[in-house]
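>> received
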Amino acid sequence: MAGRETMVGLIARLRKLIGDLDETPVLDDEELQSFLDRRRVEWRYARLQPLESIAPGGAVTYVEHVAARGNWEAGEKLFDSSYNELTVAADGADRVNGRWMLAASCYSVLIKGFTYDLYAAAADALDEWASRLKEEVSFMDSGRQFTDSQKFQQVTTLASRYRSSMIVETGGYCSTDWSAHV
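>> returned
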């Protein structure tokens, strides 16, 4: 099954992170989307940091803006300080890094949308994969024990490595949320 259209890029990145790239993947797109959704943070009118551009003669414009986090789901909305929706320039959304280029200069930009902790979702997906491998890893046949733990070990080691790269949250708020301090 397919995931939401707005999640295509995130699902592809998650699939690459976990190495489930075969023609017949272990986890389908809908499963990967569910792991991502468990690691979703909703942002409502979070302030983006403006990055100035200085033209010859000294004119300053603010068309480029950056978020505190990356890995945004497509479909985010940008607003000015009066909550009027803004237009993003063609090919002006870099959701992976949380950067947007506007069609016109605006200093104060707010964003509404969802970000995802890809490393936490990858660790969760790898745990699921490991649980499926666990059944395949050890079995008995005609009184003989067969064990093939190499793939299981690789998957669990990778999950552990990704857990160390997860975003740390405290008190229900993301520790990288600088916008509350601006």
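>> The chain has a mean pLDDT of 88.
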